[in-house]
Structures are given as C-alpha cells and as structure tokens.
Amino acid sequence: MGFPVGDLAETTDQPLARPLYRDDDGTHMLRLQRILAVDLAAPDRGRLDERLQRALAVTGAGWAAVLLSSDRGAEILVAGDIPPLIHRHLGDLRLQAAGAVTMPTFMVNRAASQGFAVEAAPLAGRDGPRGHVLLGFPRSERARPERAELVRLVADDLVGFLDSNSLAAQIERIKSHLALVHRLGQQVTSIHDRTELFGEITRLIHHSLGYDHIQLLLVDEETRRIALVHASGPFADQLLAAGFSEAAGRGIIGRVAETGQLRISADVTQDSHFVSHVMLPNTQSELALPLRLGQRVIGVLDIQSDRRDAFRRDDVILLQTIADQIAPAIEQHRLFAAERHERALADTLADVSRIISSSLDPDQVLEAVLKELERVVPHRGCRVTLRGEDGLMRVVAAKGYPDNDKVRAVTFDPAETPLSRPVLEEHRTIILADVTSEADWVVQPGTEQVRSWCAAPLVLGGECLGWLCIDWPEPGFYMPESGRIVRTFADQAAVAIANARLFARVRDLSEALEQKVADRTIELRAARDEIERKAVELRALLRRLVGVQEEERRRIAYDLHDSVAQSILASTYELQALRRRVGDRPDLDARLTECQRMLDTTLREMKQIIYALRPTVLDELGLIPALENYLASLPSNVPLAAEIRVDGTPFALGPDVDLAIYRIVQEASQNAVRHAGARNLNLTLAFGPSRLDVAIRDDGRGFALDAAELGLGLVGIRERAHAVGGEVAIESRPGGGTSILIGVGGIIGESDGTAAH
What is the pTM assigned to this prediction? Predict the structure, then answer.
C-alpha cells in the first residue's frame, strides 16, 4: 500500500514498474512524471512541477524528484534532466522511519556513475511525514556548504504547498458532507413511501461517499432479529432478492443491534465477530452504525468496503450523523404503517360483523370471511376446516389453491394429525415457519406447495368447531402479528358458522315439517299441532340467533373499546410526549400535529363504530329516545333528512322487540342512503292498545319488488321481525320510493287493509 514514511532504502518485495517510451527518433526517454495512486489533481501536480522547476533554478541542481506517500499508494514526480538509469531506480526506494535522510549505497553509486551527487530532505507536514525530496547536483560543480540548507528550504516550500492542498481538499470534503446531510434531510421529510425512502438513503450514501456496499437493516421487536430492507451497490439486487436476517448479537451487524454501539472493523479477517456473506466475498473492512431512538435500537446502517482500513474519521462522524437523522424518520414511517394497518383491521372487522348479521347462508358467510381476510393478512391459500358430528375433520371452504375442489374434498381423523390437538383441545394459535421441518406435519391433497402455515381455532362458547388456516409457499413468512389477526378472524368466523348452522338446522326442520304435512293430510289436527309446536321452536331458535348476534356485537364493541381504542389513545399520548421533545422543529411539530389530528379523528370514528355495534341508549332510555338519537347522529356528510313521529300512547314492548325494531330502522336507513339515494326518510311509530305498527318510508329510487326478494338486507329485516313474532310488508317500485311496514302484536295493516308479505 505505498511507501511508509522515513529513510530511503532499497526494497525488492514489490518492485515498481520502470516504463521507457520510444520516441520518433528511436531513442528511449523517460517521462518526467510517474503516478501510482492519484491523490493530487492534475492542476495540483502541475503547480508542484512548477515548484520543482523553480527549485532547480535556485539550487543549481540538474534534476529533482519528489516521493509522496499515502495510505493508498505513492506518487513519484521528477523534473529536470534526470538520467534514465537514476529515474528507473527511483521506484526501488521506499520510505522508512522519520528523521535524518541517509541515501542508500546503491543510489549513491548509480548517481555517481551518471555524474551526480544526490541530496535528500524529508517532507514533514502539519499532519505528519509526507515523503522526501531528492536533488541531483552535477559532480563537476564544486560542492557548496549551503547546498544542504537549500535542499531543506526546497522541502519546506513543498511542504507548505502540500499542506495547503490537503486543507483545501478537506474543505471540499466537508462541503460535500454538508450537502449530503442537507439532501438526506430533504428526502426524509418529503418521501412518504417507506420503500422509496430506504432506497434513497442507501443510494445517496453510496454515490456520495463511494463505499462499495451500503445496507439498511431493521430490528423486529418481537423476534429480535434484524432483517435487510434495502441496499445499494453492485450486488444490491441479488442481496434483496435473497433476503437477509440475522439474530441480534451475531455478527458485526447483530452486535451493533444488541449493544447500540457503532463498530468499525478495519480488517475483517482480524475481527472475530465478522460473518462473511456469500454474495460479498471481497469485503475487507466494515462499519456498522446503530439507528437509535433514545435507548432503543430500531436498525443498523451497514457499510462494507473491498479495501482494508477504508473508513476515514470524518466519514464515520458523517455517517453517524446520518444514522441519527434517519432513525426518527424510519420510526415515523413505521408508526404510520402500523396505524394504517390497525385502521384496516378495524374496518375489516366491522365489515365482517355486518356480513354476519346480514346473511345466514353458510357458503356465503364463509366465502365472505375468506375474502375479507385478504385485506389484512397476505396468503396464497386459506381454509376453514370443521369437525363433524362423526368426529372427522372436513375442509368446508378453501381459496387460493391450484385445485380448490381437491382441497375441499379432504376429510381426516384428527387423532391421526398430532398438530390438531393444540388447536382443537388447547384452543391455541399455531405458526409453523417451515412445515417441511416439522415431524408432525401431514401433507393433505392439494396443499403440497405449502411451506409457512398459520392456524387459529374456531371457538364459540368454549367449544372448538375447527380451525381457520392460511399458508405461504416460502418458509418463515408468518410472524406472531399474523397469528393475532388470524385469531381475530377465526372468532368472527366461529360466530358466522354457528349462526349458519342454526339457520340451516331451522331450515331443514321447516322443510321436514312441510313434507310431513303433505304426506299426512288425513291427520290435519295432529299436523297443525305439530306445526304450531315447531313454529314456537323456530321463533325460539331465531331469538337465540339474534341473541347470539347481539352478544357478539356487544363483545366486539367491548374488545374495540378495551384494545384498539385504548391503543389509539396511548398513541395519542405518545405523540404528545414526542411533540414536547422535538423543541424548536416546527416542520416536525407540524407533522406530529397532523398525526395527532388523524388519531383523534380515528378515535371518534372508532367510538361511532362501537356505538353502532351496541347502542347503550337503547338499554338506558328505551326505544323512542334511541331511535331519535340514532337519526340525529347520522353523519353530516350523509344527505338524508330524517323525521320521526309517534302516535298513540307508548308502552313497554320488551328488550327483544325494542332491539329488533331498532336494528330494522338502522338497516332500512342505511339502505336508503347507500342503495336508494334517498333525500328524506319518515319514521312513524303507531301504538295501539296491544300492538305497534312501524312505517319506514323514503323517497329514493325504489326497486322492482320481485328482483329484491333475494336481497340480504330484506332477508335480515324479515328475520328480525319474525324472531319477535312480528310481520313485515314491503312496498316499492322503480322511481317511487320504498315503504317498510312492521307490525308487532297483531295483524299488520289492520287499519288500511294492506296485505302482509
């Protein structure tokens, strides 16, 4: 790596080249300049040559040579009429200990043979020894006593020039460092996409500082592993495609993630913590800097070089400044992503709850649950497996497989699959990083491509109905957070399945009754009694169905209030604390203020969702105040003017009837806004001596009644009314609005002769 600073001596371990050049006249001449490692720019070398020419004129020397050393090599510059033999052997010199200069015998003899006496002086700069200067004086001239002093003056002049040049280079480097910090600061505040931000950070560092490989890694706080998220360099694409994950504490990167202290390895071959990467075989030195937030390490900025001792002190300071600058930005992007994910999860849960309450068809419910699962949990395949009355497990719903029908045909005994026990009996959520390494894994037909697997139990009332599982064709894909989300969906699916089973059971029973009445017409009295008894059972089952639905809505409301809403509130407090810490950073304070506003809005929306799931005013004040409150609390952006009118003297209907009427009005008003485009809605409650008539009328676009018979909303309204012994009549036509009439306690439409539907 060039010449060490000090005395001149001969070396044979790394001889330097001695190029000769043939001119047009056939003679061999040596160029006046030979460069091994370019530390000086061309204009600087020109000015140094001018100084050598001036030194020749002042001292009377025939030729001059400057030998410069650096950490990356050496430079030799010559001027004057230097004999080729002497010039060729300049490359055989190296610099040793600082101090007095003693010319080696071989150089003295070669110079004497060419008619010259050589004088040398060291170049001692402000940052240490820089090299030597040699002047060759004709032996024919009389030696003067002041010759040595002249050589030292020449050395001092050259040192002044070199120090000035070095200082100017340092200033330019500082300017480039400041420009890099400024540019990164702009990018951090302007880029909102997480991947784009990571790419810009590594790209700027790579292009500005010139190191070979730049890597950005983040710490997973749950698994305590550090994973590569972006890279720049010649092998960046291959590194990202292959992926990289390391446990905290292992390797240089893992040590920095664990300790929170930067680590410089000038020679990785001498570092016991260094772990080589197959794609970076030429790494010679490495610098790893922690990305800290207080005492918490969120990631590591890793720089690798193919040269030993590649990292300058000022570059290390700069890179630590960059690491401290980007750490808050990375954490901010993480918090934004987490907030968006939680919001998406809450929205999906609300959608699933709505689907459960609006449909009782098992196939429709299961298909809807699997479809909604795609919004928040990535997967290639997903299944619902249920335990039948015979104890066997059957796949009842499958999505995302090459042959879904083949997967749905799977039936197996849980006793023959050891992984079934923790799910069915212990009600545990299971995550398998790689099923091929699990001795208890049983490959089922159509699922041969599965590598990562996550399963959550379907639990209802302490009973496990089966499980909901998702999978991925690559190992190590699912984390504990994935299991939490799948478990939440599994709870929703359990309710849907239970409701669908109840409905199917009731439907099957009703069909059996109809067949029995047709077959036993001669036993009319007995058949009528049986029908009445079964009707009572049907109402009881329907009431139970509604009760299960409302209980689940209540549970979801409590869970949202106690977990998600509290998490949002905690985030609000954390943002407030962070705003106090940022001090005089108005730009960052503005962004934090906007985050605060978004969280407040989210919390208000969450409260509205919780109220929609379980209106407490219904329990506290009764039906009429609850309806008035609901219609008055419609969002301001909803273009619906709602009026309520009460006729007669209200009387207690019972909690089941109150809840049924409330839900029917809620569903009807939502349909009027979403589907009918209505501007006005009129609600009338007419109390008679022993009955209640409810009329819900809107001025929307209406619909053909026959085409709407299959609508899930109408089915839900009828089911709720039937569950409390009521009847429903629906009147609508295209362009003529819609009327929904509900009667409880008698025959609907007694006063006007409207036919019941």
Answer: 0.39
